[in-house]
Amino acid sequence: MWLRHVIKRDILEIEIRDIDAIVEELGTQQRSVIPILQAIQERYNYLPEEALRRVCEISDITAAQIVGVASFYSQFRFTPAGTHMIKVCVGTACHVKGAGQVYDAMKRELKLGEKEDTTESGQYTIEKVNCLGCCTLAPVVQIDEVTYGHVSTAQVSSILTDFESQKETSGKKRYKYADGREVEGEIRIGLGSCCVASGSDEIRDAVKDTIDRNGLNVKLKHVGCVGMCHQVPLVEIVPTDGETTLYSKVKAADVEQIVEEHFQPHGFLKRISSRFLKAADTIRDDSRWMGVDRYSLDVREKHVSSFLGKQVPMATEFRGVINPIDVQEYKDRNGFRGLTKVLKEMTPQQVIEEITESGIRGRGGAGFPSGKKWEMVAAQKSKTKYVICNGDEGDPGAFMDRMLLESYPYRIVEGMVAAGYAVGAAEGILYIRAEYPLAVSRVLEALEICREEGFLGKNILGTGFDFDLSVYQGAGAFVCGEETALIESIEGKRGFPRIRPPFPAVEGLWGMPTLVNNTETFAQIAYILKNSAVAFNRIGSGTSRGTKVFALAGKVARGGLIEVPMGMTIKEVVEEIGGGVAGDRTFKAVQIGGPSGGCVPHWKSDTPIDFESLKEVGAMMGSGGLVVLDDTDCMVDIARYFLTFTQNEACGKCSFGRIGTKRMLEILEKITIGKGTEKDIETLEQLAEWTGKGSLCGLCKTAPNPILSTLKYFRDEYEAHIRGECPAGKCKELIRYEITDDCIGCTLCAQDCPVDAIAFKPHEKHVVNHELCIKCDGCKQVCPEDAVIII
Amino acid sequence: MIKLKIDNREVEAPGGSVLIEVIRETGIEVPSMCYLKDAEHFTSCMICVVKDRKSGRIIPSCSLKAEEGMDIISMDDEVREARKTSLDLLLSEHVGDCEAPCQVNCPAHMDIPLMNRLLGEGKFAEALQVVRMDIALPSVLGRICPAPCEGACRRKSIDEPVSICLLKRYAGDFDLEMDQSWVPEKAADSGKKVTIIGAGPAGLAAAYYLALKGHACHVIDRNDKPGGSLNKEVKSDELPATVLQQEIDLIANVGVTFGLNTTVDSQMFKELTESSNAVVVATGKGESGIVDWGLPMHAKGVEAAGKTYRVGETGVFVVGSALRPSRLAIRALGQGKEVSFSVDQFLKDKPVKGEPSLFNSRFGKLLPAEYAEYLKESVPGQRLKPEVMKNGFTPEQVMEEARRCLHCDCRDMHTCQLRLYSDVYGADQKRFKSEERLLCTKQDNHDQIIYEPSKCIKCGICVRITEKYKDDYGLTFIGRGFDVVVGIPFNEKLSEGLKEAALEVAAACPTGAISQRAKTGM
User: Fold this and answer.
1) Helix pair angle (A252-262, A200-214), 10° resolution
2) A283, pLDDT greater than 90
């Protein structure tokens, strides 16, 4: 007893010293609240009340401010977390692959009740996160720094076992199969008829041999016709950590070298530096690869092919090739040339004209003409102005901005400095989500280097122009992607949006004219300044010029980040780039624009992807989420999924937003458990109309979109739910798991069932007890005969 | 100065003015709740919306500055619908009663919680005045009423209902025992004559209240004494004849005259309608002659409008069992009171609408988790019973029993803006009803104010006010989204959180969420 008392006193003392140091370093004004809270949480893994009270004592921050802010942002905890954090991704791609069931299974495994999130021993805390950005490995579970991909409900305990076995070893993020083997990547071989005709079979065997011989954990995947028929045989290397590289006209003899270059045999050769694992650099040296043409990502090549083919990298130029932090390489590839031209040869007005001429519209979702916005800020007569990069990408299932910040930080910097020059700002801020620590550290590193190189700071490139950048970390609030809420957040307040007018361009951060643009917008601006407005403008459709980066995910054969010209049709993206719907399922719809967007059904897949066309069919460009849905996806469930997200992220300020989203969600939940009525659909439509009209900001204004678009195109599914059926077989309350006559009595399902709903009777056809069944999908996954069906 | 248009009228205003102020200056009423003058706007309740003619969008007028060339439509169908919808949404998360269930259930709509508060403090005379506002025969009803109010009393779910009927009886008896019973103020003589046919409870009540409103009332009855069906209830133990007589005398005392032993036939009826400015038919059940009087009939009685009791467009009104048979004297009394409003409106050539009533927010049953909260403003203890039933309560018992009241009525029911606007816009609390509701809690550890978070509409006025004051804690938003609450940081007590700002916050709070404690008054 006395020992505990002594220890407690010690801890309190330490806290006070630590807290004082934090405040000393970060500041005593309200604007320092969020960084202070982040520092405290980093130190103690939660926010002890004593620590917060101490902050109030020694600073100008009030109790009301600190509690108000701390309780607004999801990042902050008020109770200690377990030693290890288990993050189950419930982003869109993971959701459609059954993340919800994985989460439930994990909770059962940890013996946690409905409201509990930390195990009794204090070892583990579990939480749902949106999104970890590994959509091709969906469903994904991350424990501390280890990421497990393709997790099924049956594998949850093996993940924990594996983690326990190696948790002492620290280190970089690793990707693993659920049984503990590390996934190093995939090798894809085109096996369409032309490929086979030219010897792809042989290639495949050679690859297989090499993998086996070296004991590599690499998945060998066969893909259908990749369309680049004149370049076959094609071998595509997709390492888990790094970018994809495609080899064409590969000969069997080359295979061994190619494979070994990317995937090191275990225990054999000394591991070459990590640079080689990032595919880019290993292949750059063409002299080693006679006779094999490495696929070049030059925009001018007209390859119609796999994943990379129809894409037009502008924001993602040199993807898979360039080292993110190597400033010399960036310069070698004409990086900072655009900025130099801007500062030395152009006036601010000319820069704005160039941007306007390119026709670029904001890539954050609203699509406001960027040139016009820059014009507005430039026109304000104020000595102090700001430029903000909105990197608060929060759409579940979107990670374009993360990739841009992690992989092309210099591009963003270039865009921002040019913006500062054009509008008359001397200071800029990159607002980056807390959930993107790698992006934050890369950007910080890049900024340091830029200062050393003279691209940031005073008298940039000797032109007399002063401009510097800093990074501000978000604290977990989707609403802070809204520009006015983002500004409130930087000012150290709760992220409540403000009404516009006044627009941030006129009255923004600290009341000064502020330019807020999305990350991708800045990346594309760097491209425009380097290559010319015309180069950008000549691609696109209608008033939507240039390209857009999308995170293609869901039930598509090949998901990932793509950059396509505006105007490409949905069909082209899904089938040609994405490789069509995976498995033998049928294409049902795509969801574009994340929680603010809408569904476009397969019979409208000829719709071009541009701002106007998407709006016409009831969807929205959004920030770039593109989720492919098949016949096993329930559209009512999808609407509910997105509304769950928006309702959880709503800030609570305005009546229509706060209450409208909640009531809509309640109705959707009622419908998905089979308790909905016709009247509910009517009420839902009224709520959707008014929440859209009356809400203060874009978040809740667009929250009804998934509902409205699914009602528009899939009303029959809603009505089926009212009758008590879920046609897609997804909504748990409305489906039954049944075992068919294909059952061989192997008892695997009975063993797997977490609630013993299947009696253990070897050699007899198994039967599901519907009273006990919790629809975890475990039996279906484990059955070797595919004898479990959903009715 | 800048120029803009409001409803197609040219208006001038200083640049930088808030739009809602500019519109209000022109004489147009614009509702608002989260708007706090001279403080930063919060754009929360959305009830101040108007329409921008050019874009067709509805915009919150409290949060925007008036600008040169603006073209505003202050009201149209869509604006009205927007305001109503916002109210419907706010009401769906607003857990609180305006009037207590007992009052709502009482056919005479008596303000029972107020009576209870006054009795609890020993203010018996004032309590009686509250009763007499709605009930013309308190001591009589205190002896014969089956007390539907007690059926609705929330205290019932905790232990037993408050003994409302006996409390009321005491108030009535207290007054009768005074040398001088209370005589309410009468309105000036209107010069109008009203004939009331039937001296039963309905007719007596109608006469009483119409007389107080300044009209000359004459009550006719076929019997030799007034009282109608009440005379049947007279039993020495339960309803002494003297009590009935005393209370009828008090009615006569306000100027009501009686014509007893007078039977009305169709001829006389016609004459009465011509010689009086209005006639109230309160003949009770089974008055066989009435069918000949030329009044429209339905299966069970005379046909008259629901709320106003008026027969068509005439000056004839029908109440009591003549309208629809009922055994509840209290219902007849209630109708008599209500019809006095209709007749009064008729006599003054105003639109006949009946007794004014306001919107009521209601939240239904008290949940077990809320018992302790509601007991905070009450006392524990079982329901008291008089030692000898016919003697009623002693004064000490009255005070003790009255304190068992849970005060379900809202302290702000007369000033709450949410209630007021819900009434104006015809809001519907059931439209977006949810299956779950917030739990009621009462934060009462403060000597000046009480905070009931379940009534809060998250307008942030209190947060903005306490920010100014630099109290140690103040109030702040805690959490985010639908579950956001306003509270004191670090869960400190209300008395720690609100010191100087307390009264200002209570006055500014647009609902009854934060209100001043000592509000017993009328």
Assistant:
1) 40
2) no
